[in-house]
Design goal:
The chain has 121 residues and is α+β, with helices and mostly antiparallel strands. The protein contains 3 helices and 6 strands. Strand 3 and strand 4 form a beta hairpin.
C-alpha cells in the first residue's frame, strides 16, 4: 500500500492530470478513480491489465482508452504526471517527453501536492 498519491503541479499552479480527469464523463471518471484507488492499494505490485511500465521510471494506469502516467517517489508515494485519451497503440513521443520532463521537475523542485484525501478516491 502506498502512503500517498500526489499530482504534478505546473508552473501556473494547475494540475494537468486533475483537469483531464475532471473533463471526463462520469463513468470514465469513476473508472479512472477506481484505478487510482487500486494504485494506492497495490502500489508497486499493480500490473497489467490495470497498469504497465513504459520506461524512464514512468508507469501508466490503463482505464479504458484513457492513460494516467505516474512514477514512484520516495518509495511510498506515486505522483501522477500526465493523462491522455490514447488514440493509437503506441504512446506519442511528445507525451513521453512531457512525462519525463514533469518527472524531473517534480523530483527537483517539489512541484506536486497531495489532493486525494477526501478528493477523488
Amino acid at each position: 500500500m502506498l502512503a500517498n498519491i500526489w499530482v504534478f503541479i505546473d508552473e501556473r499552479g494547475h494540475s494537468p492530470v486533475l483537469e483531464f480527469l475532471e473533463s471526463l464523463a462520469a463513468k470514465e471518471m469513476a473508472k479512472a478513480s477506481a484505478y487510482i484507488g487500486e494504485l494506492k492499494r497495490q502500489g508497486h505490485n499493480l500490473r497489467r491489465p490495470l497498469a504497465d511500465y513504459i520506461g524512464h521510471g514512468i508507469y501508466e494506469l490503463r482505464p479504458g482508452a484513457n492513460r494516467v502516467f505516474y512514477f514512484f517517489f520516495m518509495g511510498n508515494t506515486a505522483i501522477l504526471l500526465h493523462a491522455i485519451r490514447k488514440k493509437t497503440d503506441k504512446l506519442p513521443q511528445r507525451d513521453m517527453e512531457l512525462c519525463v520532463k514533469r518527472k524531473r521537475q517534480a523530483e527537483e523542485s517539489g512541484k506536486h501536492r497531495n489532493v486525494f484525501p477526501g478528493g477523488l478516491l
